[in-house]
Amino acid sequence: MKIYFYWLGMLVALFCMEAWSADLDRPEVEKRLANADKAHPADLRRKDLTDLDLSSLDFKIADLWGSDLRRSNLSNSDLSGLNLDLSVLSKVNFSNANLSNTSIFGVHAGGANFTNANLNGSRFIGVMDRANLSRANLSHANWGADMKNQSMGLMRASLNNVNLSGANLSHANFDRAVMRFANFSGANLQNAVFFGVDLSGADFSGANLSGADLSGTTLEETNFAGADLAGARFAGIKDKSKLKGLNSSKHLDTAIID
Q1: How confident is the model over 89-106, as pLDDT tens digits?
Q2: DSSP-assigned beta bridge partners for residue 257
Q3: In the predicted model, what is the mean pLDDT of residues 237-243?
Q4: Residue of 82, 73, 186, 181 whose CA lies nearest to 124
Q5: Cβ atoms of residues 208 and 186 within 8 Å
Q6: What is the mean pLDDT of the chain?
Q7: H-helix or E-strand containing 42?
Q8: Which one of 20, 48, 55, 234 counts the least CB within 10 Å of its CB?
């Protein structure tokens, strides 16, 4: 009986959460941003900002830590350099937004739209499954596992089924991430690090992997058709037959496969 009332209470709580409206509307957010300065950033901390149109706004002097932005429209907005840790970003529209050098830690961003977004130098640990990052800029991004929090279990990026087609991932770090069935077609992955990443079913067709490190990766049914593998490292790959499309890849003779 106690279990029944526990789950009933949880369902009621969830219903109430969905029924609540956002804490602020766009005019109030704009007012707080207009009155902000470096000593007094716009207070949006832990605010419910769900389903709002916040497009084309400048959030550089704002505190968005722990905010709930589910399904909000932040397209063309500037969030560069912000701390978005513990925020809720599922199904947010970040298309063409500037998220360079942001910290996004402990976050759920499943299904979010990052097409053409600037994530250069960003830090991400969390869940971003099924997100659209086509043509996004992730150069020098650090989305690798957080090795400082091992007492909490391995904290890493989950990027299953993400669309990274045409994206710039040069010099990015995805150490120990999970990227099953990710779409990297036509992407720039020069000197990117994928050490220990699960890339099962991923599509690298036509991608530039020159100088990339794929040591210790899981590459079951991974497609490299037409990919540039100049100097790419595949240490620990014992059976090349599991790699699809190698016959049509470029510069395979310079790749390091052992």
Answers
A1: 999 999 999 999 999 999
A2: 234
A3: 73
A4: 82
A5: no
A6: 90
A7: strand 42-43
A8: 20
Per-residue burial over 106-123, b = 16 or more CB atoms within 10 Å of its CB, e = otherwise: bbbbbbbbbbbbbbbbbb
Burial of 239 (0-12, 13-18, 19+ CB in 10 A): exposed
Q: Is the dihedral of CA 30, 35, 41, 46 positive or negative?
A: negative
pLDDT of residue 11: 37
The 3-state DSSP class for residue 23 equals coil
Place of tokens 């009986």: 1
The string of DSSP letters for 213-252 reads B-TT-B-TTEE-TT-B-TT-EETT---GGGEETGGG-BSG
pLDDT for 222 beyond 90 = yes
* Pairing status of strand 256-257 against strand 233-234: parallel
Sign of CA dihedral 140, 143, 144, 150: positive
* Sequence-ordered list of residues with C-beta below 8 angstroms from that of 189, at least 6 positions apart, any chain: 169, 170, 172, 204, 207, 208, 209, 212
Question: In the prediction, which pLDDT does 150 show?
Answer: 52
In this structure, what DSSP letter does residue 126 have? E
pTM of the model: 0.88
3 state SS of 104: strand
